[in-house]
Amino acid sequence: MRGEPRSWTLAVGALTLCAALAGCAEAPWHTSKTSPSSPTSREPALSASPSHTVPAPRRAAPTETFAAIPDLPDLRFASGRVTVGNQEHALLDEIVLLLKEHPHTRLVIEGHTDDLGSREANLAVAEKRAASARAYLIDKDIEPDRVTVVSYGPDRPLCRDKSSECRARNRRIHFVLNPRND
Question: What whole-number distance in Å separates Cα of residue 51 and Cα of residue 24?
Fold first, then answer.
């Protein structure tokens, strides 16, 4: 990765403790009471390549604890772009190495958009962005059931300004992990 050993257990424990102490004002993404027709609860039918079909991502159970991956930036997207390009492969390859080094770790890929356009369209775009990264990881031999996609669309912006710079920061996918010892 970056040549230095990492203490993921300590980092995840600290993040979990901070999250528990701070509380969470937003509803969890893994709400199980959403209707199947709701854009945030759809499970995408992905095709990583024409030769095979990738199973739909699994939803995380409400009791699981996830933490942002330290030292990995979000992937940014141009407006309307939904697929990861060659410039993003280096970061995704780092995630592949991390997941292969930690075989019990699962990953959630969160898709986010700016606030332009309808909420429904933005939820679909965010899901396609996250699904594109998921398909790349699966093509690199990461087990499909270890990678979950969730779409937040415009609902969790990093900034709320109406400037083009702010909107560009909000068009992203974000990576969250769950280290497990089972």
Answer: 42
User: How far is it, in rounded angstroms, from Cα 66 to Cα 51?
Assistant: 33
Write the DSSP string, the chain.
Answer: --SS---HHHHHHHHHHHHHHH---SPPTT-TTS-TTSTTTPPP-EEEETTEEEPPPPPPPTT---EEPTT-PPEE--TT--S--GGGHHHHHHHHHHHHHSTT-EEEEEEE--SSS-HHHHHHHHHHHHHHHHHHHHHTT--GGGEEEEEEETSS-S----SHHHHHHHSEEEEEEE----
pLDDT tens digits, one per residue of 105-162:
999 999 999 999 999 999 999 999 999 999 999 999 999 999 999 999 999 999 999 9
Question: For residue 110, what are the contacts with CB-CB under 8 A and spacing of at least 6?
Answer: 29, 126, 130, 150, 151, 152, 156, 173, 174, 175, 176
